[in-house]
Design a protein that fits this description.
Order of helices and strands: EHEEEEHE
Distance between the termini: 10 Å
CATH architecture: 2-Layer Sandwich
Oligomer: single chain
CATH class: Alpha Beta
Helix content: 25-40%
CATH superfamily: Alpha-D-phosphohexomutase, C-terminal domain
Structural class: alpha+beta
Number of domains: 1
Protein name: DUF2218 domain-containing protein
Organism: Azospirillum doebereinerae
Number of strands: 6
CATH topology: TATA-Binding Protein
Largest sheet: 6 strands, antiparallel
Radius of gyration: 12 Å
Amino acid sequence: MAATTTRIATTNGRRYMIQLCKHWAHKFAVTQEGDQGVVPFAEDRRCLLAADDAGLGITIEADDADALPRLQEVVIDHLKRFAFREELGESVWTPVG
């Protein structure tokens, strides 16, 4: 499975993680517990969220590496909608493993 990760510096990481999980729970079997969330977009692709006092970690996993850029775009676009009062800066994605 291919994966990329980014970290968003924000003191609102937990709030954004909860909002993202609640938003996608209408379409997917989202799990969220404490500071962790998982959004299974499909059987072969998912988004892992981890929040703390300093930010929000986002990891995207997919069987097909070609799907990663589009998934990254979708997740960041949704995050920016929830964080419209805050400038989050550019997301820098790094391959995992």
